[in-house]
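Researcher: Here's my situation. A collaborator sent me these components and asked whether they could plausibly form a single complex. I don't have experimental data yet, so a predicted model of the whole assembly would be a useful starting point for our discussion.
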Amino acid sequence: MSGESYKRIWEQAALIPEGMVASYGQIAKLAGLPRRGARMVGRAVGAAPSEMQLPWHRIVNAQGKIAIPEGTRRHAQQVKLLRAEGVDVKKGQLDMDRYRWDPTLDELVWGPGRLHDPGADSSA
DNA sequence: CGTGTGACTGACC
DNA sequence: AGGTCAGCCACAC
């Protein structure tokens, strides 16, 4: 089958918090595929069953740009989904310094194993 | 089974 | 900021 790798990629991608993004390379690395490829991440998320509700839209390239060709339906969909989460997307691009998800930082702030859940009131 | 390709990336210029 | 180049790797032909 397509692989154990896909599974790992899906698992990692699913961890990206709402309103944040990760790069293909970042997910690849987290999935334990440092050199095997960011490219594989693109394939994996594209092949993910819709029932899985994978947050594929939270994955952009290392430059903070949407990797899907502009003008396509999926590109527009990704922009739409990101904006719905409060991410400011301009010209198919966003600010990585601002929205990049940093799992290690998450761990430092929220504790090992704990995930930052924006919805679960920590309420200011 | 060889080639081309891409929802990538980092290094250079 | 933008263009080119060489690695990468699974997949379609």
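Model: Some features of this prediction you could bring to your collaborator: Residues 4-107 of chain A form a domain with the Arc Repressor Mutant, subunit A fold (CATH 1.10.10.10). Chain A has one domain: 4-107.
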